[in-house]
Amino acid sequence: MDYTSIFGNLVAFLLGFSLIYSFKKIRKIGLPMKNQSDEALKWSAKEKSWSSGNDGRVDIMIVGAGVAGSALAYALGKDGWRVHVIERDLTQPDRVVGEFLQPGGYLKLIELDLQDCVSGIDAQEVFGVVFYKDGRSVKLPFPLENFPKGVSGRSFHNGRLIQKMRNKAASLPNVRFEEGTVTSLVKEKGIIKGVSYRTKVGQESTAYAPLTIVCDGGFSNLRRSLSSSKVEITTRSIGFVMENCDLPHPNYSYAVLSEKPMLFYPIGANEVRAAVMVNTTGEKIPSISSGEMANYLKTEVAPQVPPELRDAFIRTIDKGNIRTAANMSMPASPCPTPGGFLIGDALNVRHPYTGGGMTVAFSDVVLLRDLLRPLNNLSDPVAVCKYLESFHTLRKPMACSINSIAGLMLKVFFANDDDPSMKELKHVCFEYFCLGGIFGGGLVSILSGLHPSPLSLISHLIALPVFAVGRSLFPFPSPKRMRAAARLVMDAPGVASLVMGAEGIRETFFPWTLPAYYRGPPSY
Ligand SMILES: Cc1cc2nc3c(=O)[nH]c(=O)nc-3n(C[C@H](O)[C@H](O)[C@H](O)COP(=O)(O)OP(=O)(O)OC[C@H]3O[C@@H](n4cnc5c(N)ncnc54)[C@H](O)[C@@H]3O)c2cc1C
Predict the structure, then answer these.
(1) Which of ligand 1's atoms lies nearest the C-alpha of 99?
(2) Structural domains in the chain (count)
(3) pLDDT higher than threshold 90 for residue 112
(4) What is the pLDDT of residue 28?
(5) Ligand 1 pocket, 213 CB below 6 A?
(6) Cα(105) to centroid of ligand 1, in Å?
(7) Which of 46, 56, 258, 462 has its CA at a distance of 20 to 30 angstroms from the CA of residue 132?
């Protein structure tokens, strides 16, 4: 038996215990919600829409029709709420964000009846991820065996998905889209009553609704009164599309764990997205217009690109069309305010390396829709606000798992290689992925959103240092390797608690100690 198997057995025990425990917990939290929504479905759709008369008044105002806003508009409109959406730009977006949807996010699209929006946009199916480091690679499929046929990751042009969702939402008679820029929230006596906005033709206007849901994205300028979080720009993405280039493993995304971490995944039948991520703390991003960027990509980045992709990478640089985007992180710290609600990146942002943003956004949309289903109207904003506080606890299994794994990847894979303990941690993490099975495969099942569980993640965080110590002792211990392992054992809990602590230990692991967790719908 080699050292991997010995430590595998030990860790399997720890994992098995935690997985069974967390599975039970998820069932406890999840099942009542499901029954409640099925029950609500029977009566909600028609009655709610017309019960208070079709007098032109709206129930819910949505600010921003990006990934979260357009899905939410459809979900709430389908349930019969009268929805008014104000979006700054209703033309099809063209941006380098939100192109890879995890299979867990696709499951949420199905729950929202929006899965047809990834059809007819040249979306590609993705069945897993390949991690590559220093010439070695490991292929980890998503654990899709127990899911219906057709469930997998999807990658596409972000704007095409958004436009499809907008069109589907706009086809509902009780959903109205308007192009305009919301400038502020209208607040009276501590209650948000609606929004002030500039219409497409530049007129100042106001619109009112008993509930305003703000989903104006990561750069939100409206979240101030609804959240106390501060955005941190951690790294930057440099992206371009490589055409007619075959990935070494078709229908797999390719995560390159080099000094400058990179991602490659298909976004069309003949298009591969190349995204290079650079740490903004140590480096200034080169200028695209002066040609510095092209030079930087060829000289500093290309040597780290896996050889099978390097030619296509270099060839594409000269074609131009290089884009950059800021990668942010922001934990959710909502300030409950009657009449207002935050969702999507306006509420919570995580690093994009694990491609989890849309999965969290769709999961939050499902949850919010389900919470609103038992309500007949929203006429008491204070009671609705109190009731909706449970949203922030109920979202934790998905949000905390995906946020924390993204945070860990950021801390480990974007750390400076000059720090020997982080360099060793990087190496150990890759070796851990290479173990596959319940180890690397287990991590992939969490980051895919298929089995989101903060407790499973904790068991991996326990297993990692154990594995590191094992590696240092076998086949025979050396002082250098033992020193590195000892450093790792000391550093790993710090990294883990920093990342998971940001999610709120009580909300994540002890939700039943929070009064909001038990709150039922208001009866008025
Ligand atoms: C570089 C990068 C790569 C990413 N890659 C992935 C990935 O592969 N997979 C993944 O799941 N996630 C990814 N993400 C994250 C993902 O893009 C976001 O989580 C997702 O777009 C959030 O959706 P949203 O609706 O909150 O915001 P957005 O999709 O940004 O939508 C916000 C909308 O609000 C509108 N708006 C803004 N201000 C106003 C205003 N004042 N008035 C009216 N309208 C307004 C905007 O025009 C926009 O349409 C990535 C992020 C980055 C930065």
Answers:
(1) 8
(2) 3
(3) yes
(4) 33
(5) no
(6) 15
(7) 462
